[in-house]
Amino acid sequence: MTDSNLPERPLYEAACHCGTVRFSLRLRDGLKTARRCNCSYCRMRGAVAVSANLDDIQVTHGSEELTLYTFNTGEAKHYFCSKCGIYTFHQRRSAPDQYGVNVACIEGMSPFDFAEVPVNEGKTHPKDRIGGGSAIAGWLRYEANPESRERASG
């Protein structure tokens, strides 16, 4: 759970692409939890996720438009907007007391804000791995093209 000795965690506003689903959240450990995963679902979804405790997300608008997707064990609960199809957050199988939140839904954030994001080994889920625990499959790196920055400012 959240350590009460930590400084106040900021409240973020978030929404799907069309704005039908809106939610507010506090991150568990700021942006330090940013990650991707290479399991079959995350590989296709392609989102960078950060962690929030279950009680730190409040859907403020459009909860009736959230659609649930589960697969395999059915433990992870993936929510997305039924109107625009954007993945908003999911209850994690590896940490059921947490949500993984799509960084791109958080106001003012983008997956391209991260120079490097670890990619968790999800082909064999940590709960299914002998000895458990997470492993890093690799890193996703982003470097802005300086030419496109020059064009945007000029």
UniProtKB/TrEMBL annotation:
This is GFA family protein. The keyword Signal does not apply. Pfam families: GFA (PF04828). Residues 12-128 form the CENP-V/GFA domain. Keywords: Metal-binding, Zinc. PANTHER family: CENP-V_GFA DOMAIN-CONTAINING PROTEIN, CENTROMERE PROTEIN V. PROSITE patterns: CENP_V_GFA. Belongs to the Gfa family. SUPFAM superfamilies: Mss4-like (SSF51316).
